[in-house]
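Hello again, I could really use a second opinion on something today. I've been staring at a protein lately and its backbone has me curious. You're getting the sequence in one-letter code plus the fold written as tokens. I'd be grateful if you could look everything over and explain what you see. No rush at all, and the record is pasted right below:
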Amino acid sequence: MLDLGDHLLAGGQIDQASFNLSGTVETIEISFDYVGNTSGSWASDMVLVISDGVHPPVAWGGFDTQFNGAVNAGSWPFCCSQSAPSGPYSATVAVPPGALSASGTWTISIGNGWLNSPAVQYNNVIVKVNGVCAGGN
């Protein structure tokens, strides 16, 4: 389980962290507390991008950008206007087979994938990458 903390991100902004991981990923679990604004942003605008340093980066979520996520793995199950209210959100999503499978430094990024969005908060972001071990290499 990776604790990515709190993020205040306007549209098109992204934060990233690096972890030493090893394995082949089948699913990703994410949970966070969304604090929106009154300008139409949604929790589903949040983008998660994961790169294993070997394969093209994989991205979930977003509205009009997925940053450097070369592999679009789809929308969040809490997609669209149903994710407008502030509050807790969580999802488990599949990883395309073989898309994330390596040993070494992985980068995990959280971004606001609606380019016109004013700042929103993604707090208490926890990501569980199922199938990897910390401290790989």
Summary: DSSP finds no helices and eight strands in the chain. The chain has one domain: 2-134. The mean pLDDT is 92.
